[in-house]
């Protein structure tokens, strides 16, 4: 599994904490920036990471901004991306199980690294249930062509 990572300045510190954990777990990733805490725009950071998921270069993405909301909104504008902003375990698990999310977004000003790592772990290790949920995913995909 290859992950794409990206953050704006509000999520930079959390992204760096997550990278350290991913290194410990030997989970490979590509870091699409930002590479420091200087002000930048979340849409500019989300796009290349999500493009890597769509192209197949990466399997999933982890995106960070101050709240997780702005970067998730930007990510969801990209065809084929199903990004979920999560700050609790249940949501992170069920966004994979029922929604087949391919991007997890979190807020660096909302949750700490311990909680973020717990959410990432369940996100990465929960498989899509399929079945009746596939019909709903297909309907989400159809909305992209309206």
Automatic annotation (TrEMBL):
Keywords: Isomerase
InterPro entries on file: RpiB, RpiB_LacA_LacB, RpiB_LacA_LacB_sf, SPI_LacAB/RpiB
GO biological process: carbohydrate metabolic process
Origin superkingdom: Bacteria
EC numbers: 5.3.1.6
Pfam family, one: LacAB_rpiB
GO MF term set: ribose-5-phosphate isomerase activity
Active site annotation, chain numbering: 65 (proton acceptor), 98 (proton donor)
Keyword Cell division attached: no
Binding positions for D-ribulose 5-phosphate per the UniProt entry: 8-9, 66-70, 99, 109, 132, 136
Entry similarity comment: Belongs to the LacAB/RpiB family.
NCBIfam families: PRK05571.1, rpiB, rpiB_lacA_lacB
Protein name: Ribose-5-phosphate isomerase B
Upper classification of the organism: Bacteria, Bacillati, Bacillota, Clostridia, Eubacteriales
């Amino acid at each position: 599994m290859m992950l794409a990572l990206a953050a704006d300045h509000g999520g930079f510190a959390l992204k760096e904490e997550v990278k350290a954990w991913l290194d410990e777990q030997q989970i490979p990733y590509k870091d699409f920036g930002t590479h420091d805490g200087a002000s930048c725009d979340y849409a500019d950071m989300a796009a290349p990471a999500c493009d890597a998921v769509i192209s197949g270069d990466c399997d999933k993405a982890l995106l960070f901004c101050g709240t997780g909301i702005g970067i998730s909104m930007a990510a969801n504008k990209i065809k084929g991306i199903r990004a979920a902003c999560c700050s609790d375990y249940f949501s992170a698990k069920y966004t994979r199980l029922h929604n087949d999310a391919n991007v997890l977004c979190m807020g660096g000003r909302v949750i700490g690294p311990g909680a973020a790592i717990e959410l990432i772990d369940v996100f990465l290790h929960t498989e899509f249930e399929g079945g009746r949920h596939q019909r709903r995913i297909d309907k989400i995909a159809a909305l992209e062509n309206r």
